[in-house]
Amino acid sequence: MAGEELVREGHGFGRALNLQPGAQALAAERPPAKFMLRDKSLIPLSHQHQRALALCVRIDRAQPIPAADLEIWQTEIEQNFDQEIKIHFSAEERVLFPAAREFPELIPLAEDLIADHAALREFFSRAQMRRMSSETLLAFAQRLSRHIRKEERQLFERLQQLMSPEKLLALGMQLEAALKDAAQSCILSNEAARLRQRP
Ligand SMILES: [Fe+2]
Ligand SMILES: [Fe+2]
């Protein structure tokens, strides 16, 4: 059930982003959901959603995951978090959610998405500590894909309707800067950790 839903989601994003149907892991022969074309200000986040969703689909398809494979999955999840998702969450929390909160109708959704981030961070720290079971991995994939679906279908779609083209353009520039800033501080803290580890 989850796999079917995840696959359909990926197909919709591909169309929304005008991507070539190359992401075969996400392709599905069924009528696409109706998506607005994604505004260019939100495309970097949507691309990252697509990559996270591909991971969710792979976890779902790998069920039941044997105990011997848990280590490799958790390593991959940890790497995804460190290299992209941590930065993505930070940009959403610093720029996107505050922009959404300016519209009263989007405040409950923004709160809900912030709570999702907290729950997902718990999953990521369990992966980092290698404490995930096969069931936890599946619960993680389902929670992450539900979160992405809410952002794409509800938050992004509504923001595109509510915000003027000028505001969307400014939002895109702020997001770009936040993604860059977070990536830079991530590189610096990784570098500092490496230096600390030297004898
Ligand atoms: Fe998010
Ligand atoms: Fe997101």
Question: How would you describe the overall organization of this protein?
Answer:
With 199 residues, the chain is an all-alpha fold. The protein has a single domain, classed as Four Helix Bundle (Hemerythrin (Met), subunit A) (Up-down Bundle), CATH 1.20.120. Helix content is 75%, strand content 0%. It contains 6 helices and no strands. It starts with a helix and ends with a helix. The relative contact order is 0.15. Bound molecules: fe (ii) ion (2 copies). One fe (ii) ion binds next to helix 3, helix 4 and helix 5.
Shape: globular
Beta-strand fraction estimate: under 5%
Order of helices and strands: HHHHHH
Structural class by sheet pairing and helices: mainly alpha
Summarize model confidence as the mean pLDDT.
84
Question: What is the annotated CATH architecture?
Answer: Up-down Bundle
Describe the sheet with the most strands.
none
| Low-pLDDT stretches | 1-11, 18-33
Helix proportion range: over 70%
State the CATH topology. Answer: Four Helix Bundle (Hemerythrin (Met), subunit A)
Ligand list: fe (ii) ion
Counting DSSP H or I runs of 4 or more residues, the number of helices is 6
Supply the number of structural domains: 1
**Count of distinct strands:** 0
**Which class in CATH terms?**
Mainly Alpha
What Rg is obtained from the alpha carbons, in whole angstroms? 17 Å
Distance between the termini: 51 Å
